[in-house]
Amino acid sequence: MSTKILIVDDETNVRLNYRITLETEGYQIFEAVSAAGALEELIGRSFDLAILDMRMPEMDGLELLAKMRSFGITVPAMIVTAIASSPSGPSVGANAANWRLTPRSTPAALRKSEGSPRKTR
Description:
Blueprint lengths: L3 E5 L3 H13 L3 E5 L2 H10 L4 E5 L7 H10 L6 E4 L9 H4 L13 H6 L9
Parallel strand pairs: 1-2, 1-3, 3-4
Helix pairs in contact: 2-3
């Protein structure tokens, strides 16, 4: 069975880039254009990883992660942003086991991330 990843981003091109890169690596990709859409997907099926955009209208990635945890959704999540500042403090620590600021998420970086899904054959 293929590893399932949910990509949550309001920008079509960002989702497409993740889809192309990750499908090439053998992952099964699902998409949501908003936090509300992501919650529907996460409630409706199980995922191995959720990639959340930090800056989205209506609800940002940290707020989405908090909402996921409040609903008992424990899927590992990676929050990404194109903005060169890093979140800190209670908003991150309460829901994240580990976080770091990286310049770009490449397939190699995803494979090396702690808690990232590993393909099984």
